[in-house]
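Moderator note: this is an archived Q&A kept for reference. The question asked for a predicted structure of one protein chain; the sequence and the answer are reproduced below.
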Amino acid sequence: MDTRHRGRPEHPVPADVWMLVRERPIALRRSTAELAGAFTAAFGPRFVLWHTDELLFGVRDGRLVLHTLGGVDLPAPDVVCVRQMPGSMRSDRETTLLRHLERMGSTLVNPADAQLTARNKVWQVQELALAGVPVPDTLSYATAPLDGVVHSRNLRTPCVVKAVSGTKGRQVFLAREQGLLRELSGSLADGTPFLFQEYVAGSHGRALRVVVVDGEPVSAVLHTSRHGALAANIAKGGSATLCAGRHPQAEELAVRAAGALGLDIAGVDLLFAADGTFTVCEVNAVPGWRPEMTTVTPAIVACIARRLAIRGYEASPAPRPGETGPPTRPAEPREKPAAARPSTGD
């Protein structure tokens, strides 16, 4: 629990909305800090931000329990906005905490199962293909030796090589021909699984990012790489141009992709196919966004407000994307366990 958004009390106080972020000392992403500020403004003392390293969880007397490191019991919050990148989650650590919160009755945005699917690019294309969402041809492996994989007759070049759980354009390579692919394989870590994906030449160095919230495309941006690089990623020096509404087919496809993966909030990256259509490159369960994408934060605040309304709060009315009015407690408070809850943080 941090103190930048609200003063830290001697004892944690009740909060209905949590934001869950990575352990310290890892800094918050700009978009996450912006969202935390918006939650503080919208929900006031009902909101708190926790780092994953501040919480303990388990079973006591046959009941699931949650504590601070200082030993204070915490009832589960109503809604948790998960802002830890799925790629950095470990199944025996952070994802276990998400599962624990769900089993205690919290509504997670995004749900734990959807987070797990999103953290694995192969799982993503499996679900997207089954839902009829267009994706590039993809090949991966379980325990086959990497040297054997790159010599497989089923592996075609040119292809894009990606780490199964990579983020921000890291560990993404273009292998234009078999010789280069085999040469490249020698520099890949055997302990890290990779996938080999069809190269969509018409989208080299550019990709469309559509942010979807509750089944609505709330913003879109065209990413363009520098110096002819393959990955059009801002983290690698690319540029971004707002383009909401300019590619309605892509926005519709992004909504379908988010729905196929069970994501309430998603950043969907789409590639430009040669025939003028689009194909889904990958889906991010914890998307970042540029400062000029001003519709995203209000849409997420509205999403959280609607989750509170579903759980028995009055919304005035429950806002749609682009609106921020927070819900209020019902006239008769719901019964909750007698336990302390935390203050806000970053």
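Archived answer notes: The helical segments are 30-43, 94-103, 112-118, 121-130, 146-150, 178-185, 248-260, 296-310.
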